[in-house]
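> call design_seq(struct)
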């Protein structure tokens, strides 16, 4: 005999009061196990598969009579048997626009056989919840690289305010789209792993761990002598081709008014790059270069015209 949804609901709320958060229910020789994660990533179609196991615990249960249903948003729907497992049933539900989740529970009708007759039985679960994540990380493009490498992070819900961190060290982060960020591996110590996080919009997303490898580079010439306004080529060479996003070489100077030069980026697949350095105000100092293998410098001397 089937019971009305109102009777089911009252029973469910009583069960929640007695045992909040129940996910597995055993009764009348049949066990229902919810196999659906409580939180799932958002997808463009807004259709989510809810899966559960309905396992007979007695040989007297007529497997052909097992008829699971799901009650979601106060509506009852039959569930479909999954071809992968004999006891696995599922239901695809499209979350209405503007909603961030749903509440549901399972009901299962079945027949249990006695020596001379068969008896109809029914079992149901406590209330379950499904939450939709609209901001999450799928994966980092790489899990290791040297300092300066450009690496992408794929996910959803990214904003221009997001920053990728190595432990507590912020990186130079580029907003590509709501589903992709990229960052440059900062000048941290090589030969160890760092915790990777995306922080922004009031949320901290765990992107796993990232290992920084050691790599050095050569700079030619080893000294720069210029007059104000003059230019000279400066070549940076790395031992292996730059990764897919290219490699940024961090350059600083103690005479910023005397040196004018562009950003130094070795293109993906290349082993060197040449940039033009221009003399500014007269002065003497150094250009400093940071890599995962250490730091180096060359002298700079700029004289008047």
């Amino acid at each position: 005999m089937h019971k009305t949804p109102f009777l089911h609901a009252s029973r469910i709320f009583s069960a929640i009061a007695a045992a909040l958060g129940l996910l597995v229910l055993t009764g009348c020789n049949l066990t229902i196990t919810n196999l659906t994660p409580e939180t799932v990533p958002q997808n463009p179609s807004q259709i989510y598969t809810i899966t559960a196991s309905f396992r007979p615990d007695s040989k007297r249960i007529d497997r052909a009579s097992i008829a699971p249903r799901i009650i979601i948003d106060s509506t009852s729907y039959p569930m479909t048997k999954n071809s992968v497992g004999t006891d696995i049933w599922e239901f695809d539900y499209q979350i209405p626009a503007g909603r961030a989740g749903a509440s549901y529970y399972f009901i299962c009708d079945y027949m249990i056989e006695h020596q001379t007759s068969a008896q109809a039985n029914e079992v149901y679960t406590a209330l379950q919840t499904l939450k939709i994540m609209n901001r999450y990380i799928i994966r980092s493009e790489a899990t290791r690289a040297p300092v300066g490498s450009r690496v992408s992070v794929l996910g959803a819900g990214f904003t221009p305010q997001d920053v990728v961190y190595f432990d507590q060290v912020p990186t130079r982060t580029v907003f590509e789209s709501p589903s992709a960020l990229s960052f440059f591996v900062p000048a941290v110590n090589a030969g160890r792993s760092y915790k990777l996080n995306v922080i922004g919009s009031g949320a901290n997303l765990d992107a796993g761990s990232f290992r920084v490898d050691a790599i050095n580079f050569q700079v030619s010439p080893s000294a720069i002598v210029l007059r104000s306004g003059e230019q000279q080529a400066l070549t940076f060479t790395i031992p292996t081709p730059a990764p897919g996003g290219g490699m940024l070489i961090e350059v600083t100077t103690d005479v910023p008014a005397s040196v004018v030069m562009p950003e130094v980026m070795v293109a993906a697949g290349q082993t060197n790059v040449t940039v033009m350095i221009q003399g500014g105000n007269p002065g003497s100092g150094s250009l400093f270069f940071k890599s995962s293998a250490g730091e180096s410098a060359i002298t700079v001397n700029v004289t008047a015209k």
